[in-house]
Every structure is written in structure tokens, then in C-alpha cells.
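Why Nudix hydrolase domain-containing protein? Reviewers of the renewal asked for a concrete example.
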Amino acid sequence: IVTFYYYLLLKYLATWYRGDVHRDGDYHRAVHVWIFAESTQELLLQRRADCKDSWPGLWDISSAGHISAGDSSLTTARRELDEELGVFLPKDAFELIFIFLQECVINEGNYINNEFNDVYLVTTLAPIPLEAFTLQDSEVSAVKYISIEAYRSLLADEDPEYVPYDVNGQYGQLFNIIEKRYNGNLEARSLDLQKKLSRYAHVSLSAELMGLTDADQEALALLVKAATIIDETYHLQVWCSNPSLRDWLKEHADISQLGKLKWMYYLINKSPWSCLDENEAFLTTADSSVKLLSTATRAIPGWKGLEYRTAFPMLKPPGANFYPPDMDKMEFELWKDSLTDSQKQDATGFFSVIKRHSESSLDTSQSNIVDVHTDHAHDLYPVPYSEEYMPFLARAAELLHKAGDLASSPSLKRLLHSKADAFLSNDYYDSDLAWMELDSKLDVTIGPYETYEDTLFGYKATFETFIGVRDDKATAQVKLFGDHLQVLEQNLPLDNVYKSEEVIAAPIRVIQLVYNAGDVKGPQTVAFNLPNDERIVKDRGTSMVILKNVSEAKFKLILQPIAGVCVTKEQREFVDFDSFFTHTICHECCHGIGPHSITLPSGKKSTVRLELQELHSALEEAKADIVGLWALKFLMDKDLLPKSMIKSMYVSFLAGCFRSVRFGLEEAHGKGQALQFNWLFEKGAFVLHPDDTFSVDFDKVEGVVESLSREILTIQARGDKDAAKELLKKYCTMTHPLKVALEELELIQVPVDIAPEFPIADKILLKK
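Here is what the prediction returned.
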């Protein structure tokens, strides 16, 4: 751990002269870049120039170099490959596979090498012709390809013509990764993907359109088409090479059974990382798309150019595609501290991506690079969504304006036109107000909202779309909850000093979902509470949308079977849809109460999101869940809900814990649910029996629910990130009781979630 933090510290210290670093043995950073030819299973080696002060004339890595102060790792990797070999590649060709600490002493003690090396892999389809390289004479005297097995053997035998690397130590990862990637059992892989797919129950979701006017049905068709563009935008937000991966998998889905399974599981996850497996990669760069670059190297007659696999990392990037892939939290915070208050808002706001000046300079100057340093004091800078995603948002805005012209409801007209304008201006305030005031049979949520994908800070919003038909009867029935938010706020188990005096009644709309797109990967949401903009929450509150047909499908296909396995026979009868659905509604309402805009102990004004950063999403989901349970009991005590629901409410919540934890402890809802279950179990509110079933202790559960509600609300009110971290660390774990339940569910193969199909939207899209 100490070594790792020292590595981070090195990123921000002034650079030494290269000779001084190796003379004094100072720890420093460098990059290793390996070029791997897929068709021949060969690595490219360079022979170090005879004038080099370390390992002169020996065969070594394809390309390598020190990371200078002001440079990033990826920029250095790209620059070194271009300078040493004359190969200029975009960032999507580089896959960071591991970090390697190299410590050695050579040249009779005159050369001390203490390097943290970021090791990158570039995968080409075939070997690059040797005459296509342009070698830097002062660094490289020759290049050659060698089979990966032959090279491994030479290193293992410590051949004196090759720079030594311990293939049985850290550097063995290079060979192990490649071997696993290309020598795996295809049948076993197909079976694994089939098993992963079986965790999702396919269900057709539809709605009655008879209540829509002809004009609204025309608008619906335009909105579905706009949603597909929002989906494209979201794919890009996840990772830079994600769109090309999607297109490649779709194109090759019919070639083999394995290809079909890859595509089917990708469609559910919308990325190469599996939502239900702690974001473990189920694909590798070897499965990725192929791009052709005719100008990446010197032109060779008869050779069409360099073909490479677009890369993605095995570990899902915590910052998604919102930040440079080699940026960490320390670099961002140092940059943020140098900004004005207005600039900080741009940097930490929902609707911007963060980029590097050096990367932009590198791309602009292409392969004629001597020095990519710029005059900017800091390498990072923000780019608004309206600029970054302009090709997508302009098309979507045009469709929204057309749909707005057709819409029969004035409030829907206002929403669609204002949202289209927001896509181009990057100002979403008015369009979010219009969404809150929507009163239309055709219900639409479209835009950048949730921040779950940004696990680095929780700042950046992803694009999503939900289109549905309002269920007027169900909407009228749930009005009670929105109307009593102020009463709930004033009675929260929280010190009065932290309570808000003005909580606005939250409009609640119940819809039958017709189509969703964008950030709707993996486990499907049953409801949402928006917007997340703290300015609007403070001034106008929030609004809720409940997806009733999604809730019904989850209850029937998942929650009932879970209860049949995990809940004691005596309490099983208490699990019912009304309790499950009512808690879902109250969960969303409780996003709108409790701390949002806060005053820190120092007197500084802030928000819970900014203070808790990457911990905010999980804690907020836990808050909405547990405070929602507290709120239901409060409303029963006030005779606003029937007291006959009380046992059903608690037992349905118990069954729901096992449903959400199965989403994984890397996902915000899964984390939040693990926290709640483990707290309630530790305090005796949930009981495990010898037959591996669970029950609720009705005498204890009310007090325990209130105690956890108070704990979470107080942490949020104080903006106490350290306390949040300790709470999640202690309770967000896969404890023995949770393992017992999940193992039982695995035995009978209860689906983890649903994979919705949308026949109405499919019919519309077929007419495109």
C-alpha cells in the first residue's frame, strides 16, 4: 500500500533529469508499450541503440520512455511509440494491462533503475511490415517480431541478448493475459455466457395506446427514434471504444453461437463489463472491433495499412469516459483547487467532460511531434456536453422539436422544445422544470440525469430515456405520498437543525413503460426521482415516475420466487405486490426529503453530492430505502395508510433485500441494500433460522429501521465523507447470512432481474 501511494506521489513531483534519476536511484514513472500481432501470436521487439546507457544493443520492449512532469501516461505512450518507431496511433489502440515496479542496479552500481511502469498493449491483426517503421537512431537500432512463447523462454533462460524481465514474477502477467485471451476453451466460454444470460428473465412490456391522440402517437414514434440517438450517446459516455465494440459485435453476431451469445449479453450490459459480476469483463480486446489506419506508419507499396483492435481495459474505468483514462482523483483535485468558484462549478458539474490539453495537442500535431507541452498552467480542462456530444444531440434535438410540434398537451410541447434547446445550450434548468410540470398522457423523461456511471466522483450525468403512457388511476392513488413530504421531513429521525422548512409536494406519475434507452443497463429501475440538480431540488423539490409494468414483472418473476426460498413459511404469506409497490413509491419520495443542500461545520455552503463524492450514490439509495420504510410506518401511525399492511411491508422489504443485493456490491443499489440488510440483521430485526430461511422480528424492526435512518441522514447532513466510508466499509459486505440466501437462490436459479422487450417500439423502429 505504501508503495502504491508513493507511485501516486511521483505523478506530481517535478521531473528530474533522466541521468540524475538513474544515478541517484530516485523512484520515477515510465511507460512500456508492447505491440502484439494477433494472427501470428508475436510480439514486436526493438534492439536498443548501442549508445544507450542501459542495456545497449539488447532486445527489449516495443517502445518505452519516461513520463515527464506535465505529461500523462497515455500521452507519453503515444508519443514514445511515434518518436521511436514512427507509429502514430489514437488512444483507443492502447490497453493499460498492469503497473510494474522495476528495481535493479546495473553498470557496476552506476545505473539504478527504480521505475513504476504503466504497461500498455497494442493489438494489431497482423505484423507491421518492418520497412514501415521509422526508427529513432539514438534509441533504436533494429526491430523484429518473435513468437510470444519463444520470447518467454528466452527471458526464462536469461538469454544475454535480451533485457531481463522476471516472467515468473510481475512481468509474467503480460504472457498470462495474452495466453488466456487466445487459448481459452470456446465451449466453456459459451456455457459461461449462457449461464450469465439465464440470470435475466425476458419479458415483453407494453401499454395501451388507445388513450393517446393520433398526434401523440406520431410524436411517440419520433420520441422512440430520438431515444435510439440518446442510446448512442450513452454508449460513448461509458468508454471511448464502446460504440465501435457495439457495432462490431452486432455485425458478427450471426457468424457463430459464441458470437450470438456475446452480442446478447452485451445488449443487456451495454458494455464489455458485467453488471451482475462486480463489473468483471466478459469480453476482452481480442473480441473488439478492428480499425484500419492507412497513415499510422510509413506507406509501403501493396500494404493497405495498420489494422488494430480497439482496446478497453479489463477493469472498468471508475471515471468512465468522462475523464482522461490515466487521470486519478489526486490530479483532478489539484487542478480543481487552482480554479475559481465558477470554474469549479464547470469542472464538477453534471454536464461536462474533462479532457487534456496535451492529448488535444498530440492529436492536432499528428505524427510530427517534438514536444507536446502547451502554455496552459494545467493539463485538464472541461468541455460541455453540448459540444462533446453535438453530433448526437443536434439530431436528437431536431426530433424533439418535431415531436413537440405534434404533441397535444401544452406541457408536453413545452418539455420537448425546452429539452431540445437544452441539448444545444447545455443549460437544463428550464427543461427540468418543464419535466416536473408535465401533465400528459404521453410521458417522457429524456436527458442526462443519473451519476452512477461516474464512480470516481459521482459528478457526471449519463443520458437516458423513458417513454410511457400515464396510468391515470394509479397516479391518482399515489397522490397521498407527494402531498405529505413536508410532514415527513419535519418528523424525520434527524436533529431539527438539519431539517428543511420548505419541502415542496412532489408530483408522482405512474406510467406503463413503452421504451427505455441510454443508461438502462443491467438491472432495470422500477422508479426514479428527478432532477438531481440541487438548485431545483431546493427551489422546487423533485418529481417521481413509477414504472408499474416493470414493478409487476419483477414481483411476479423474481420477488415471489425469492420469498418462496428465503422467507420462513410462516411469514411467506405477507409478501404481496401492494406492499412492494407502495415501498417503491415511498423510496422515490424519500429521495426528495432529507439533506441535499447543506452547511458544513466550517460554515461553508455545499451539497451532499459534492461532499460525499463517489460514496453519494450508494448512501443515497440506502437512505431512500430505509427512510422509505420508516415513512410508511409513520403514515400508518397517522392513519393515512392501513395498519393491516405493516407486516407485509416489513416482510416484503426483507425479500427485496435479497433481490437487490444480487445486483452486486459494485452497484449503488446493491451496495445500499447490503448496508441495510447487514445493519438490520446485526441489530436482530432480521433472523436466520436453521433451515436457512429468514424472518422479521416485528418487535425490533421499527426501532432498528429508525436507528439506521438517523445514522445515514446525519452523515449526509454533516457532509461527513469519513463517516460514510466507515459505514459502507463495515456493512457493505457479503456477510454469511447474505451468502446463505444467495446460494439458495442460485440452486433453484431464480432470475436476478428482467430483460425487457418493447414490441411497440420495435414496430416503430422497423419502419425507419
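Residues 1-17, 367-373 have pLDDT under 50 and may be disordered. This is the kind of structural detail the renewal will allow us to pursue systematically.
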